[in-house]
Amino acid sequence: MGSRLAEAMSPYLRAHAGNPVDWYPWGEEAFAAAEDRDVPVLISIGYATCHWCHVMARESFSDPVVASLMNREFVAIKVDREEHPDVDASYLAAASAFTRELGWPLTVFATPEGRAFYAGTYFPPRETRGVPAFGQVLAAVAGAWRERRPQLDETAAAVAEALAAASAVETEGALPGGDLLQAAVGSLAEQEDHRHGGFGGAPKFPVAPVLEFLVEAGEPGRSLAARTVRLMGASPLHDPVDGGFFRYATQADWTEPHYERMLTDNALLLRVATELGRARPDDEHTVSIADGIARFLINRLQLPSGGFASAQDSESVIDGERSEGGYYRQDAGGRALLASPALDEKVLTGWNGLAIGALARHGFVRNDVRSVDAARRSAELLLASHVRSDGGLVRASLDGRASPAVATLEDTGMFACGLLELAAVTGEPGYAVAARRLVDAAMAAASDDGLPFAAPGGADPVLSARGLELPDDPAEGAAPSGLTACADAAWRLYVLGAGDGYRVAAEQAMSSVAGIALSRPLAFGGALALMARLAAPVVQLVTVVVERDAEAGTGSTETALLAATRMHEASVALIVDERQAREFAASGFSLFEARTSRSGAAAAYRCEAFVCALPVEDASMLGALGLRE
């Protein structure tokens, strides 16, 4: 029955192709069928490594009786939330009108026009602790549709109206200074779990964007971040065999993890651990955590194509039985005897951008060629196959096949940030030029609502046709928002000398969320991290060598200067050869104008907001120029 899903790009949809449910993928065809039959739409949203999505699929969607009821009374749509994040966001917002227990699988009942009139998450096959059986829910909704249609239409209209009103964009605000940012650090410190690390109680997430903010905010935030990373690294949330982190823990002491391993979490935690290790190279535990995450990303999530898989599943089959986390509870020897849990091999543009940037930065700080090469492989794949001939982006692909889903603002911003980090690390300006094109497209797509960035491809067309699209959500849980990511990329372009307009755009974007971010720091870590960078002095360090191949240094003085460059506290630090410096300057990045080596020796140019000190040739002289506070 699920033959429509058999050729889907999404592994999550393909996994449901054998269900007796007559699934439709997200698209106009499903809504046309619902209108023709005059039945409600059942929208089931999840993702490939979601444990309870697997459970509901086995318990309910594989049940012929339940499937018969679904097929008779509804048009059923299966959505991969990672392929269609804007669809997920729209229906997650609508679901909040019906349940406080938001999550996945998300089960939404809507009119043929797509307007939600009831929603829930996981429904069991039999009534359990007051939660009705899924079959009971289906029967009740179908009965209400036949007998109380006007009330359901009224509910759907009210929810849609409330969402439209709540999504009005507030663009007034001012960027916070140091005092307000430190107050946000203080608010986070009050929520710290001093015994186990992290913030709040169960369930507990690593909230990597918040940790990045604490690192950027300086002391005492940096010490708070370091404590959190060390305690997480010593907890069951961390996989000591492969080096990565699991998605979250169900208990406050980080025990009973949900064992899926996400690209987003690990890329962002790599960035945090790398920066903590750079600032505190004697903290061997944190340095080891960073190296382990990089190893996990490369060894487990990087695909032969060079792209990074979205996630690795929590479930495996052991002795003929499905086991949640059983594989991960084995040591290295035990795992060698078992089949590895499946990967969601879907390559997402934005998420790969996070990995590109984190691995490139780790490779620079640790002088690790393998990390840089891994970042470069992903970037080259995306530039070749995820940038369309018209300059637009592909949201996702699998085995080289592009998804029809529209790219989102996070794809533009995260990919641009990754390219800019890679440009800084490799010294190759082509990556920065590609990033600038992406940011320019997002700025050109912006409307007159006061925000400087918008997704160049527009909103999902099926949502737009029904008036159900929402503005890009600025809130940040597991990853920075699209708005923050684009603003971050714009700020990076400014720091490289691409022009003041990029700084203005970054400031305008962050001003629009400053008030709510300061009042809810746990939900706006990425925005606060960028605000901290915007509030700090701009420090730029360009060290020029004669030839890039000789980067290791021809003598102890040059070797020490290059090592000091890698560890320097700066807004951006680069090592380039003279050719690369000329090409950066010719490409419109003024930071590199007149940057040359000195009499055949490496020379470091340290600048503050483009006002540069005389070049220095040894590490002690560079250190004497001062560090960013």
Write up what this structure looks like.
- By secondary structure, the protein is of the alpha+beta class.
- The protein folds into three domains: 3-166, Glutaredoxin (3-Layer(aba) Sandwich); 178-310 and 345-535, Glycosyltransferase, CATH 1.50.10; 539-624.
- Helix content is 47%, strand content 11%.
- It has 25 helices and 19 strands.
- The strands form six sheets. A five-stranded mixed β-sheet has the order 1-3-2-4-5, sandwiched between helices. Strands 17-16-18-19 form a four-stranded mixed β-sheet.
- Helix 19 (482-495) runs antiparallel to helix 20.
- The mean pLDDT is 93.
List the helices and strands and how they pair.
Elements: H1 11-14, E1 24-25, H2 28-37, E2 41-46, H3 51-61, H4 64-73, E3 75-80, H5 85-95, E4 106-110, E5 116-120, H6 134-147, H7 149-166, H8 178-190, H9 208-216, H10 221-233, E6 248-249, E7 257-258, E8 261-262, H11 263-279, H12 284-301, E9 311-312, E10 315-318, E11 321-324, H13 332-336, E12 343-344, E13 347-348, H14 349-366, H15 369-385, E14 396-398, E15 401-402, H16 409-426, H17 429-444, H18 461-465, H19 482-495, H20 500-511, H21 514-519, H22 525-535, E16 539-545, H23 556-567, E17 572-577, H24 578-586, E18 603-608, E19 611-612, H25 619-624
Helix pairs in contact: 4-6, 9-10, 9-11, 9-22, 10-11, 11-12, 11-14, 14-15, 14-16, 15-16, 16-17, 16-19, 17-19, 19-20, 19-22
